[in-house]
Amino acid sequence: MNICESDKLGHALSCYGILKANVLQKADIVILNTCSVRDQAEQKAFSFLGRAEEFKREKPNIKIVVVGCMAERIEHKIKHRFKSVNLIIGAKDIDNAAFKIADLCDISNYSIAERESDKAFDIIKYITVMRGCDNYCSYCVVPFVRGQETSFKSSDIIEDCRLAVNNGAKEIMLLGQNVNSYKYDDIKFTDLVKNIAKIDGLERIRFMTNHPKDLSNELIDMMAREPKVCSHIHLPMQSASNNILLAMNRKYTYQQYLMLIKKLRVAVPDISVTTDIIVGFPGETEEDFEQTLKAVKEIRFGGLYVFRYSSRPNTRAASMDDDVPLEDKKKRHSIILKESNKISIEIVASMVGTTQQVLAEKIEGDVIETRTRSGRKVFVKCASKKDLGKQLNVSIKEAKINSLFGEII
Ligand code: SF4
Q: What's the pLDDT at 142?
């Protein structure tokens, strides 16, 4: 979501003639797009702001702008601590950020031409279909900083997708905090994807993130039938202990989650399921953790992100006793990571010798970075620029922990 919004802001700023500087030292405006999901993300933002202030002492005319969730959540704290920040724009106001930044810099000339030429190089286009969340998982700050769930008009989304494809996009990644609960008038997420799939020239569709409680049979069926939809789903599990899932307010049990995985694997046999896990949630016992570890071993996720629980202000979990010692959180984090890496290595090793259809996304020298339909990166040597944006058949020759190496057939 942050990549998408930074990208969108970059495009919008280019309409005012404000272009990306390749290095900080060349920048006249420093814009920090922030995340509040974890305490660590906020600490990183503070440390970046410290560096930006140092930079401003050397170059006093630069402007410092903070946007995003942290700007929404703790505007006053940022103002108080970083006196040289010129402008703070919260996540709910991000659509006006380019205008406000241009205004700060006394720029009023706006030209769409620059933006469209810029867009021509996006092979993968991120399109936000909804914002906000009404789920109030007890650990999560998103509903507080992003507001209520709002789905965007389907015809506008389809038009954005069409424009992106006309400008060279081959893959659309639909984004939303809870993408599969999308609903605009009578149009549900499945209908939206089916309509987007009709766009000529579009080759692949992905979407994230999905809430298990909103993963309908209809959506699973559509994933099985629609050839443009990639065989990958990110489905956050968070924990496999029903006590913890209840305390997290996730609205499903582990058994229901497992049933969804089974259905997905029957419908789309080559599907890769990736997930998020939180360890050390308040009250998580060794036994709760063992259940999560067992689930990781049994389900064999295609990849996972594991986080140590950190308390977020205003959330329900913030009033719970954060009783898992840091040492235990670290230990549980590393156990899950180790197991996940082991499984990843086994999965990628089993792909050696197979042929995969990949989309060529980026080129560096004579190596093209591509991605399989299941979301694995494959580096292909001796490729040329003309292969960019094409779907290629690649023979997998070598595997490393999270990447594969192959040759074009
Ligand atoms: S579904 Fe839960 S974790 Fe995801 S954004 Fe909403 S409140 Fe946060």
A: 92
Residue that finishes a domain, picked among 63, 82, 114? 114
Q: Which of 2, 38, 142 to mutate to test the pocket of ligand 1 (most atoms within 8 A of CB)?
A: 142
User: What CATH number did the domain enclosing 272 receive?
Assistant: 3.80.30.20
The confidence score (pLDDT) of residue 112 equals 67
- 241/230 Cα distance (integer angstroms): 30
Confidence of residue 117 (pLDDT cuts 50, 70, 90): very low
Contact in structure between 253 and 304 (CB atoms under 8 Å): no
Query: Domain span at residue 368?
Result: 352-408
Same structural domain, 28 and 95: yes
- What is the pLDDT, as a whole number, of residue 121? 63
Nearest atom (ligand 1) to Cα of 136: 7
Q: Which residues line ligand 1 (CB under 6 A)?
A: 133, 135-137, 140, 142-143, 177-178, 211
